[in-house]
Design a protein that fits this description.
This protein is 28% helix and 19% strand. The protein contains nine helices and 13 strands. The chain has 342 residues and is α/β, with parallel strands linked by helices.
Length: 342
């Protein structure tokens, strides 16, 4: 028959019922400090209190199972506290998840750089989309140039931020008028990041206001355009899409599509590098990974890069369930005229 519990055991039980989630060592220190007559004042006081708490919790092995009946409202052995219970909680961030597009025929336009767009090239891409009766327009980053608020050296005569925004809205209105029933999605690129970076440096007190958002600046909601923010990527079945700057780093890869393959290891499409490219490679198990770099639809010889390897181009994607077919199209000068070539 079990005798009357000792004062040590009785105190351990009382404290465990009061503080069921407290760490064993925390309770031991509290017991030793508040009851020196019971646990003593020598160096072994805390260890005696700790043993009492562990014994009542049933943490002292099978020989102490008689204490298990008293474990009501006491933390289970597997949930015993650790020295790291007081780590600060992390700040809550926006939920990060891919943006999924469900469509059948998608026109992908990258690097338009309004107001420095290539008028004829952009017109050809939009007419191609109209002929294919696309049901989704994907603006794959750097739709706007934001030249006037760039940190790079600028021509003072070209600094007209209001005119840039006006032309951007006119462009969006024109695209919406040509595709009234199509859904539209906008991925911000590194040139759109210029705007947020400018606001952080010049007007940090306004960052919490909706008025400075890209959506409001370009009236994207008015045009029925979804914005993919936060560096998220797009999913179109088994095909992903990003602008191309999300992985960071500098320097232009020899083959943008191969660089995308090495960094993402998934079927994916990007812009950013202004060059049409493609890379296909099978995995050891035979899974084929295909990546695509789109050409641009901007002026091919801007002041800051007169000589380059850019080319005009855009993408047309057909989705069949989760499967996809990408037409990575290049616009070339042939016989004195611009023509679309695969």
């Amino acid at each position: 028959m079990t005798g009357k519990p000792t004062k040590v055991t009785q105190l351990a039980r009382e404290y465990l019922k009061k503080f069921p989630k407290a760490a064993t060592m925390t309770l031991a220190k509290k017991l030793a400090r508040e009851h020196p007559l019971v646990f003593g004042v020598d160096d072994g006081a805390i260890e005696r209190a700790r043993s009492a708490v562990r014994r009542v919790r049933g943490n002292m092995g099978t020989k102490n199972h008689r204490y298990l009946a008293n474990r009501t409202q006491i933390r289970e052995n597997a949930k015993a506290g650790t020295a790291f219970e007081k780590l600060p909680k992390p700040r809550k961030l926006k939920k990060w998840q891919p943006f999924k597009i469900k469509a059948e025929r998608i026109l992908a336009l990258s690097d338009v750089h309004v107001p420095y767009h290539h008028y004829a090239g952009l017109q050809m891409a939009l007419e191609y989309g109209a002929k294919k009766d696309v049901d989704h327009i994907l603006l794959l980053g750097d739709f706007m140039d934001f030249y006037s608020i760039s940190r790079w050296e600028k021509d003072p005569e070209e600094r007209d931020f209001g005119d840039e925004i006006h032309r951007g809205k006119m462009m969006l209105q024109s695209i919406r008028d040509g595709f009234p029933n199509a859904k539209m999605t906008y991925i911000p690129g590194n040139h759109e990041d210029r705007y947020l970076r400018y606001m952080r440096l010049r007007a940090p007190d306004l960052l919490g206001l909706d008025i400075i958002s890209l959506e409001n600046l370009l009236s994207l909601d008015h045009f029925g355009i979804d914005t993919v923010d936060g560096g998220r990527y797009i999913e179109m079945g088994k095909l992903c899409a990003i602008h191309g700057h999300e992985f960071g780093g500098s320097g232009s890869p020899v083959n943008a599509a191969r660089g995308l393959f090495l960094k993402g290891l998934e079927c994916c499409m990007c812009g950013h590098w202004h060059r049409t490219s493609q890379h296909t490679e099978p995995s050891m198990k035979g899974r084929v990974v295909a990546t695509y770099g789109l050409g641009c639809l901007c002026d091919l010889h801007p002041d800051y890069a007169r000589i380059n390897k850019w080319n005009l181009g855009f993408g047309y994607i057909e989705l069949h369930g989760d499967d996809f077919e990408v037409h990575n199209l290049r616009i070339q000068h042939i016989g004195g005229k611009l023509r679309i070539r695969r």
